[in-house]
Each structure stands twice: as C-alpha cells, then as structure tokens.
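Sorry to interrupt, but I need a hand with the structure work. Could you write out one complete protein record for me, on any chain you like? Could you add the entry underneath, on a fresh line?
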Amino acid sequence: MAAASYDVTGIGNAIVDVIAHADDAFLAANGIEKGAMTLIDAARAEELYGRMGPGIEVSGGSAGNTMAGFASLGGAGAYIGKVCNDQLGAVFRHDIRAAGVHFATDPLHGGAPTARCLILVTPDAQRSMNTYLGACVELGPEDIDEDLIAASRVTYMEGYLWDPPRAKEAFRKAAAIAHGAGRAVSLSLSDSFCVHRHHAEFRDLVENHVDVLFANEHEIGALYGTDRFEDSLEAVRRLGKVAALTRSEKGAVVVAGGTVVEVAAEPVERVVDTTGAGDLYAAGFLYGYTRGLAPAVCGRLGAVAAAEIIAHVGARPDVSLAELVRARGVL
C-alpha cells in the first residue's frame, strides 16, 4: 500500500450556519422540532431567517466541522463538498482553507445557492437545525477525487449525505475507492431522524461498508430499534468493528474488535451550545485512530474536543485543540 498523503478526507454537506438564540415558545410558534435537523426549502429558509433574532454566520456542515477540528489537532485533512460560486460559498471556502484543510471541489456556477443551516439555540443549550441544502444537492460522483480518497488513511462521511440523492452515489463511490485502496471508511449517523429516514440503507452501510462508526445513544437506538442502550451496545459489539457511541454527560463507550471501553465526559464549566459536539468528538477520535493510539486515548481526545466546542457558540474550535490536549495531558 502506498503511503498516505492525508490522514482523513471528510465528505459532507458544505453549509454556512446562521446561529441565533431563541426560547421554546419561539420554536412552538414557528413549528420547529426541538433538537432535530429538519430539511426546509428556499421559501421556508427566507421566512424563518426573517423571524430569527440577531445571529452570527459561520461555516459549518457536520463533516466540515470535523475536518476543521481535525486540523486544529494537527492532523492532515482534506474535504469534499459542494458550494455555489456566491458570497456564502466564498465564506465557506475561505474558512475551511484557513483552518488548514485542503478543499478543492469545483463550485457550482449558477443554480441553487450555497446551503445554509438556521440554528436556534435554546437556554438549555439544545440546538434545533433548519437546513436548506441548496448547492449540496449537486454533489455527485464526479466530485469524488479518486486519487485523494486512495491517498487518505480514512474517508469520513456524514449520514446527512444520504438526504441529497446524488450525494448518496458519491458516498458509495468514495467508499468503494477507499476499500479498494486498502483504506478505512468511517460514518457518522448524524441524527436519529436521519436514521429513521434511511433506516434499511443505514443498516446495510454500518454492517457491510463501514469500518469506524460514530453515533450517539439515540441514533444507535434508532438504528437497531432498541430502547435500552445496553441492547444497542451489544448489537454494535457483535459487529467486531470500531465504534464510538456518545452519551452526552455520561461520556462515551468505545468498541474496538469486540472490546468495550468506557470513557468519561470531559468536565465543562457551562454548556453554552451543543452544536458540533458530535462532529468534534469524531475529530478527536479520528486523530487518535489515525495515529494508532489505544481506544481509551482516542475516546479521551474526542471528549476534550467536544467539551471545547460546547463551551461557546459555534461548531468550530475557538482555541488550538493541539495545545488543549497537551495541556490536559492527553498526549
């Protein structure tokens, strides 16, 4: 096998987040499902944007956030995602490249604008996401750089990719290239509502095409139709793969080759915004995984990265994660 040029290449929906604070009454009045990611059309995006309070705009997208976190840890990362050749597209391109991530996907010229996610953060730090996919739906197999995937130790993909039809084809192509080159494929289930939408296909992906799985306890429960975490854990353990199952303040459970390791949550003085917690957990875990570190250390790296992100608004690090994990004595 040739030497890898990149540790991880992430593939996902390239989205600019618009984040604002709101209360439960606002969610109810506007028919927003709390804690979920809801797909919306252009008209709904305009309507909701007009009703939101003051917000901040920052590049996001699940896999994009993971790759920004991965680069902050010192990893060599790349990203594949579709933006339009418009103002928000320029913002996304600038931000992910400035984070140290290689990004060369050709932008869409004309057609749908760059995707945006309208995120309402309630006082309990829960985020309710309303996503207009825009240009993301144009991501297709032709955007998959075969040389890049073959040269990456891990190809990491977000479950949200299963919503745009052509992105699903790109997903499958990338997985086949990675495995053909002897590389690993990683998947985040992304959202329990996403799992319900594509349940049978996700089961097939997890059991037959994925080497490293990320899910929270609700997502893995949705995948296996279980109410008890212990039952979901046993189903994952039987797969004999690597999996990181996060449980918020309860920490995480890491499964590796049938071995189960519990990793405590990293203490946080005050939870401000849970947006990106799972994304950054994956960043930390993959950093350890691509360096051959023990499962417990990979889990601790994920916990530290997730703790940093939930202590402030926004889903990308405010500080150097490499310096943070050194200060915490993880590495």
In short: Residues 6-13+61-108+136-327 form a domain with the UDP-N-acetylmuramoyl-L-alanine:D-glutamate ligase fold (CATH 3.40.1190.20). Residues 160 and 194 are 7 Å apart (CA to CA). The chain is about 40% helix and 20% strand.
